[in-house]
Amino acid sequence: MPDISKSLTVAFVLASYTRDAPAGMERATAALARGLRRHGHRALVITAIEADATDGGVDEDLVSLGSIEIAFPAADDELREAISTHGQDDVIASDLRALYRHHGVDIAVYVDALWGLGRLAPACDGVRTVLAMHVVGHDQDLTPALERADVVLAPSTTVLDQAHDRGYDSTCWRIVRNALLDDHAPPDDRHREALRQGGPVRVLARLGPEKNIRALLDAGRLVDRGIEVVLAEAGFEHITGAQAAEYRHCAYSAAHLLMGGIREGGLPWNQVPPWLAEAAVVIVPSTEETFGLVALEAMSVGTPVVAFDVGNLPNLIGSRTGAGGIVVPRAHGESGLWGAAEALLDDPVRYSALSRAAYYRSRDYLPTTVAHDFLKAVR
C-alpha cells in the first residue's frame, strides 16, 4: 500500500495513448497525470505508439512499449491478437515489469482492461495494480483484469451500474471522476450574450457510432444557425474501418445543412476549451456516455450543453436548479436536441443562468482535486 504522504511514481498504461488523441480516455489520463504532478508526484504514461522525444508540454514522461507491434487505428480484435499470440503476452508483461523497476513505479494504472493492458497486469513487487474502468470491457479481457487488480476505479456510477447489470460485483469499486485537462477562462458576460445571439452551435466528437453525429446532422438540416462539427479518428475502433465509414456517412449528412459543415482531424487538446468557449451551445448527441468529457469541457468555459438523458450526462450536467445545460429525454430524438437548443438561445435570462451554473459545476473537476481523490482511492 503506497504512502501518499511521500512523492510517488504513477505509471498509466494505455496502448492507444498519444498526445492530442481525440478520445476521452487519453485526455482524462493526461489530466490526472497533470494533477498528480502538481501535487509533487511523478506521472508517466506507457503507450504502444512510438513517442516523439521532442514532444513536450503535457507529456513530460511518455514511454513507448515497443513489444506491441500493431498499426493504429486498430480494432479490438487486432490488439487482442497482437498481445495474445505466440507468447507475446509474457513478453509484454516482462517489458512492463522492467519499465516499472527502471522508473521506480509505485502504482501502475491500467487504463481499460484491453486497451490499457489490464488483462495482462503483471505482478511486480512494490507496485500497486489499479484498473481504471472508463467503460465495461469485453468479458474475455475484463475477467483476467479484475483478478489482477488491487483497486478498481470508475469515473461514474454509470459504469458501476453497467458492470452490475453484466453480473460483476462492483460494490467495492471506487469512483474517481475524470478531470479537466485545461482551465481556460470563459468569455465575459457581454461576449457570451453576443454568442447567444449569433454564435454557432458546435459539436466535438470522435468517430464512433455511439456519438450519434449522423442522426443529429440529419435532424438539423433546416436549422438556420451556423453548425460547426469537428470529428476525428481515435487510435482504437471496434471494427477495422468503422471510423472511416462513419466519417463518410456524416459528411454526406453535413452536405445538406443550411449553414455550416464538418471538419475532420480533431483539435489539439489545448485548443478544445477555447473552441468550445466560442460556441453559443454545445450539443452532445451521444446515445451512450459513461462520463461525458466534452460536455464538461464546454461547461468549464461557460457554454451551455444540450444532451440526451443517457449514461452519466444527467448527473454531470444536472437537470434541476443549478444545471449547466439542458437534458433531453432520449425518446424525443435528435429533433428534441435541436428544439431544446433553439428554445434556450431564444431565452436570454435562462441562457445566462445556465452559462454561469455550467462554469461553477465544472470547478469540482480540476486536475488537482481529482488527483487528490485518486490518491485517497488507491491507498
From TrEMBL:
The keyword Ribosomal protein does not apply. Gene3D superfamilies: Glycogen Phosphorylase B (3.40.50.2000). It is an enzyme of class 2 (transferase). Keywords: Glycosyltransferase, Transferase. GO terms for molecular function: glycosyltransferase activity. Its EC number is 2.4.-.-. InterPro entries: Glyco_trans_4-like_N, Glycosyltransferase_grp1. Residues 24-178 form the Glycosyltransferase subfamily 4-like N-terminal domain. PANTHER family: SULFOQUINOVOSYL TRANSFERASE SQD2, TRANSFERASE. This is Glycosyltransferase family 4 protein. The lineage of its organism: Bacteria, Bacillati, Actinomycetota, Actinomycetes, Pseudonocardiales.
